[in-house]
Amino acid sequence: MCGIVGYIGDNDIKEILIKGLERLEYRGYDSAGIALVNGRLDIEKGRGKVGALRARIGAKIMAGSVGIGHTRWATHGLPNDINSHPHVSQSGKIALVHNGIIENYVLLKQELEKKGRTFYTETDTEIIAQLIEEIYESAKGSVSFKSAVQIALKQIEGTYGLAIVNIEEPNQLIVAKKGSPLLLGIGVGEMFIASDASPIIEHTKKVIYLNDGEMAVITKHDYSITTIDDVSLTKEIHELTFNLEEIQKGGFDHFMQKEIFEQPHSLANCLRGRLDSKNQQIHLGGLVDVMDRIVKAKRLIITGCGTSWHAGLVGEYLFEHLTKMRVEVEYASEFRYREPVIDSDDVIIAISQSGETADTLAALRMAKERGALVLGICNVVGSTIARETDAGVYNHAGPEIGVASTKAFTTQVAVLAMMAILIAQKKKTIEPDYATRLIKSLRTIPDKIQQIFENSEQIKEIAQMFTYAPNFLYLGRSYNFPVALEGALKLKEISYIHAEGYPAAEMKHGPIALIDQMMPVVVIAHTKHTNQKMISNIEEVRARRGRIISITGEENKEVIALSEFYCIIPPIEDCLSPILTVIPLQLLSYYIAVNRGCDVDQPRNLAKSVTVE
Ligand code: G6P
Q1: 177 is catalytic
Q2: Is the peptide bond before 86 cis (omega within 30 degrees of 0)?
């Protein structure tokens, strides 16, 4: 949520910053801007996407020794030109970009106004620039600029990833982190900072992840990292594991399209080295050290937000079925503000593609404080959640850029399935034959997804038929109820069509009132043990003239006969079916959004990484 980038070095600073913002644009795209130091501050910023910023700057020569950039997801203040970052201090000497929320900004603003400072924007960010300057100027040379930043940060409540420049210190970039991600890229004679590694990867693979309460003073040849209390730190340098191609569209029209179609590959990567076909075992290296504690746990609590929460719901069905453990699934945002009873016998699984979602992070921190074992399922290697959990499993899906999550969901479910089988084997709650069957089945998933793509033309036709439907209903049972939620979410996110996902039987308790001949009803009928019940629900929809689009198996003749449209899914064990049944729903929402001319990769009002509460 908001992306920040910074550069210090001798290369084309304008291009490095703008390209960096293009890579970070999935984090927010309400406005964009850059500021360069070259004896003065050279700032270009305004409402709209990074493309608009690039067009506005055009061929204008912008050079400087150090620069910062920002792409915004608005929290405080309208997404207009004035509220765009970078924000400057009153004298125009200090500029900064910020990701996060300053909670005590009203109070700080009043105090600064009393001292004669005038504010020009509606943002919480402007006060940081003004506060730093107030401290720096009133000290009249008795504190360094870095110390002024430190003093200011101690007065600020809330969250921040910050990058700050000062025309009086033209060879230095200061960054600080609390609650919003920030990393340093270490080049030769140049340094980078960014909210994530995507703007850095083409320049260097060496990165340092800052932790909360840490800051860095960076020059083009060096960096020094301290706490905001000025305690020096020596930080590990990490090597980035992905490459530039993985964050490019690779011939597809949209990142989302690419990410849907690369799922056979991402699932293969996710499963690679983890399925031992000789011994019919699962290997999850990240859990080895904590397995005893997991096996003895009294309860499993799965938490996450959005699509990750939907994957968590599938996890609940999987874990109950295979491990016989007590499982609860919690929206991270609700969980953290209740008074949940958690103790050291509990295991928390935090699921997050980005590994940065503020609510999920806060929920896991709370659980950790209360003594629970905290596990993570993250896609972004080295992300905050991945670093703060006691142990975990990476999705290995590769970077997901499209705002609507696709390959993260299928790999999250695959990871949950592997975890559940492994734990069930340890607890001896699964028949060996059944475990063997599931492991073999997991192996077939990449090919089966590929088979579903062979029907993509048919899904395109369904999309064509319902492009302008104002509402959609998605119904599923058991393992495929979360898939109904996920299908509806995908459609809402990228096509702005109102859609609801429901457990099929619950339809009778309300949504059935909405059904008429205008209502497309997507039924996910690929769970054997609830099939007859699902058929009854389909009949109930048909009796009200609802339009049935079914996601089902070839053998499910009865469902096919009752459907106006259908999409065939290869056979698979019920508990693994969500990994397949979600694929046509992703495609359906994608094709509908394209038909409607929507901005698939950057849907309005959304951001991929939600680092504010
Ligand atoms: C945002 C994204 C969703 C994502 C959710 C949780 O809302 O737009 O696609 O599912 O955040 O993100 P996470 O990174 O924690 O999985």
Answers
A1: no
A2: yes
Burial label, 564 (beta-carbon count in 10 A; 0-12, 13-18, 19+): middle
Substitution site in 2, 336, 606, 609 for ligand 1 pocket (most atoms within 8 Å of beta carbon):
609
CA–centroid distance, 308 to ligand 1, in Å, is 7
CA of 514 to the centre of ligand 1 (A): 29
Beta carbons within 8 Å of 336's beta carbon, 6+ residues apart: 359, 362, 363, 366
Specify whether the CB–CB gap between 399 and 200 falls below 8 A.
Answer: no
The SS3 of residue 92 is coil
| The pairing of beta strand 160-166 with beta strand 94-99 | antiparallel
Q: What is the pLDDT of residue 252?
A: 93
Residue 2 is a catalytic residue: yes
DSSP one-letter code for 210: P
C-beta separation of 23 from 119 below 8 A: no
Instruction: Evaluate whether 412 touches 428 at the Cβ level (below 8 Å).
Output: no
Quick check: 447 pLDDT over 70? Answer: yes
Show the CA angle centred on residue 330, arms to residues 329 and 332, nearest 5°: 140
Distance CA 125, CA 127 (A): 5
Task: Return the sign of the alpha-carbon dihedral for residues 155, 157, 158, 159.
Answer: positive
Give the nearest ligand 1 atom to 304 CA. 15
Has residue 540 got a pLDDT over 70?
A: yes
Q: One of 2, 270, 305, 567 is an active-site residue; which one?
A: 2
Q: What are the residues whose beta carbons fall under 8 Å from the beta carbon of 275, sequence distance 6 or more? A: 282, 283, 418, 439, 442, 443
Q: Residue 375 in contact with residue 348, Cβ under 8 Å?
A: yes
| 111 three-state secondary structure | helix
Q: Which of 240, 235, 197 is nearest to 216 (CA)?
A: 235
Segment 249-261, tens digit of pLDDT: 888 999 999 999 9
Point out the ligand 1 atom lying closest to the alpha carbon of residue 405: 9
Positive or negative: CA dihedral 267, 272, 274, 280: positive
* b (16+ CB within 10 A) / e for 301-329: bbbbbbbbbbbbbbbbbbbebbbebebeb
For the chain, the first-to-last Cα distance in angstroms comes to 10
Cα separation, 33 vs 16, in Å, equals 13
Protein residues whose CB sits closer than 6 Å to any atom of ligand 1: 304-308, 352-354, 357, 360, 403-405, 606, 608-610
Report how far ligand 1's centroid is from the alpha carbon of 141 (Å).
45
What average pLDDT does this structure show over 560-574? 95
- pLDDT, mean of residues 454-483: 95
Say if residues 161 and 182 touch (Cβ distance below 8 Å). yes
Is it the case that residue 337 has pLDDT exceeding 90? no
pLDDT in tens, 214-228: 999 999 999 999 999
What does the block give as tokens for 320? 């109950």
- Round to whole Å and give the CA distance between 586 and 494: 10
Query: What integer best gives the mean pLDDT of the chain?
Result: 94
DSSP string, 555-577: T-HHHHHH-SEEEEE----GGGT
390 in Cβ contact with 371 (< 8 Å): no
pLDDT (mean) for 561-589: 97
Over residues 80-91, mean pLDDT:
93
In three-state form (DSSP H/G/I as H, E/B as E, the rest C), the secondary structure along 233-255 is: ECCCCEECCCCHHHHCCCCCCCH
Q: Residue 317 Cα, ligand 1 centroid: separation in angstroms?
A: 21
